[in-house]
Write a structure and sequence with these properties.
Number of helices of chain A: 0
Largest sheet of chain A: 2 strands, antiparallel
Mean pLDDT of chain B: 92
Strand order of the largest sheet of chain B: 7-8-9-12
Strand content of chain B: over 45%
Low-confidence stretches of chain B: none
Helix content of chain B: under 10%
Radius of gyration of chain A: 12 Å
Order of helices and strands of chain A: EEE
Radius of gyration of chain B: 21 Å
CATH class of the domain at 64-154 in chain B: Mainly Beta
CATH superfamily of the domain at 64-154 in chain B: Neocarzinostatin-like
Number of helices of chain B: 0
Oligomer: heterodimer
Structural class of chain B: mainly beta
CATH topology of the domain at 64-154 in chain B: Immunoglobulin-like
Largest sheet of chain B: 4 strands, antiparallel
Structural class of chain A: mainly beta
C-alpha cells in the first residue's frame, strides 16, 4: 500500500494537498493519521 | 475528521454517505492545507477502523536542497524553529572521505567524515549560535567530485520565498 500527497492549490503561503492511495481496500472507512 | 473513504482514482474523499464524513458536495476531496516553512516536513496517514490497515506518507513541500556535480544535500527541520536539523547527502563518491563544514553566522565547524558505501551521508546538526535568537547556517559537504551547500535560516518562522 502506498500514500501519495499531491499539491492541489497554492495561494500565498498556503499550500493545499490531496491524498491518494494505492492498494488500500476501497470499501473501508478510515480515520486520519498525522496532519489531517 | 472521521469517516474518510476512497474515490475511484484512489483519492481520499468525504463521500457524504451514512457513516462517512460530509464535505461541500458528495465525494468531496479532502484538502490538507498547510503553511510550510523551508525544509519543514509534512506527514499524513490513514488508519482503518480497528487499526488493521495503516499507511503513512511524509514529504517536504518546500525542500531545502542543493545540487552540485551530481551530488545533493538536503536539510530537513526536525523541530519547528530549526533547533535540530537532519542533513542528508547523496551522490557522493562511495566510501570516500569528505569535508563537512558548517558556518552559523561565523561559528564554524569543520570535520572529516566518511561517505557510506551507497554514496550517502547523513547527520543531525544544531544550528543555533549562543547569544543569538535567529540566524542562518551554511552547510557544505565537500568531496573531490562535488561540493553542494545549503543555507538554512533558523530561529524564526521562515515563510515561502
Amino acid at each position: 500500500m502506498k500514500l501519495v500527497l499531491k499539491e492541489s492549490e497554492r495561494a500565498g503561503a498556503v499550500i493545499k494537498f490531496r491524498l491518494f492511495v494505492e492498494n488500500l481496500p476501497k470499501d473501508a472507512v478510515y480515520s486520519p493519521g498525522l496532519g489531517l | 475528521m472521521q469517516g474518510l473513504t476512497l474515490g475511484e482514482s484512489g483519492i481520499v474523499i468525504c463521500s457524504g454517505k451514512p457513516g462517512t464524513c460530509k464535505g461541500e458536495k458528495p465525494d468531496a476531496p479532502v484538502d490538507l492545507a498547510t503553511q510550510p516553512v523551508l525544509g519543514e516536513p509534512l506527514g499524513a496517514g490513514l488508519v482503518s477502523a480497528g487499526g488493521s490497515i495503516r499507511a503513512l506518507v511524509k514529504t517536504v513541500p518546500i525542500p531545502l536542497r542543493s545540487q552540485d556535480g551530481g551530488c545533493s544535500i538536503d536539510a530537513t527541520l526536525l523541530t519547528p524553529g530549526a533547533e535540530l536539523v537532519w542533513i542528508e547527502a547523496s551522490g557522493f563518491p562511495a566510501g570516500k572521505e569528505a569535508t563537512f563544514d558548517s558556518d552559523s553566522d561565523g561559528e564554524r565547524q569543520t570535520k572529516q567524515v566518511r561517505v557510506d558505501a551507497d554514496g550517502t551521508y547523513s547527520t543531525a546538526i544544531l544550528p543555533y549560535k549562543q547569544g543569538q535568537r535567529s540566524g542562518t547556517i551554511r552547510v557544505t559537504l565537500k568531496s573531490t567530485a562535488c561540493s553542494p551547500t545549503v543555507n538554512l535560516p533558523w530561529g524564526r518562522r521562515n515563510s515561502l520565498p
